[in-house]
Amino acid sequence: MGRVSPLAQSARGDLGEWLLDEGPGIAAILLVAILAHVVSGLVVRRFRRRLSNQPSLTGERNLQRATTLASALSTGFRVAIWVIAVLLVLGRLNVDLAPLLASAGVAGVALGFGAQSIVKDALSGFFILLENQFAVDDVVEIQTTANPVAGKVEDLTLRITVLRAFDGTVHVIPNGNIQVVSNRSREWGRAIVDVRIAYDEDVERVRQILERLCDEIEEAGLLDGWLTKRPSVLGVETLGDYAIVVRVVAETLAAKRWDAERRLRELISTRLAREGVRVPLPPSLAQRAGEAGL
């Protein structure tokens, strides 16, 4: 075998010395990064399981929410871990990090100005999902930076909320523009029906008629599956210009509030007509009816 030149021997010696000096440190950095990567994966998976087991949503919706949050957390943790590891290794290799960090800082500032709305949307969406403020299929009213929007949530991501209004219009709302959310689909609701009667009607008699109707609704199960409590008559709510307003309320399942209100109005109007209770017309309509000889 040929003889190794002194230069090659010197290079090998320098490499060996460098490996002895810096190799353990680089290996330790990579080992810690790998361990941090694995641990972060375990933490994210545990976090995902806890979210999936929450009873407030259906299993499918919980899984969707948990998957979205876990994916965002996992990506963030891994990027942070490996960026730090690469910078530490470059430092061990005696690479001057000052120009690199300066360039990254300038690029970060430029990206921050250009993508600040996207970052704001993503952070808002993350906390909406984390705090479970609303979910797909919830009926909500959202106050945005522009106008209030109401409807049913059809899709929810880290960046946008897709809302279908009751007339079928689809609204796409950046999560960063959401200011206040009123959720009408959680736990329970309250059906409120205001009954207008003429001033010359006996209010106590009307109350008794409505109380008997509430008893019949409960006994016959007319609104079973919608109500959580028997309807009740609160009494006179307001004294209007041409009518006395008597309020009837009932606690309902959250999603059945509007159905219960419509059905209660039907039952109440039928019962009042049968009992001969007069419901007054507004003055303008009463005048027209008088002119028509009705």
Q: Please, could you describe this protein's structure?
A:
With 294 residues, this protein is of the alpha+beta class. It has 3 domains: 6-95; 139-183, SH3 type barrels (Roll); 188-286, Alpha-Beta Plaits (2-Layer Sandwich). Helix content is 55%, strand content 20%. The protein contains 6 helices and 8 strands; from the N terminus they run αααββββββαββαα. The protein has a 5-stranded antiparallel β-sheet. Strands 6-8-7 form a 3-stranded antiparallel β-sheet, covered by helices on one side. A hairpin with a 4-residue loop joins β7 and β8 (244-253). The longest helix is centred in the first third of the chain and has 47 residues, at 6-52. The protein starts with 5 loop residues before the first helix and ends with a helix.
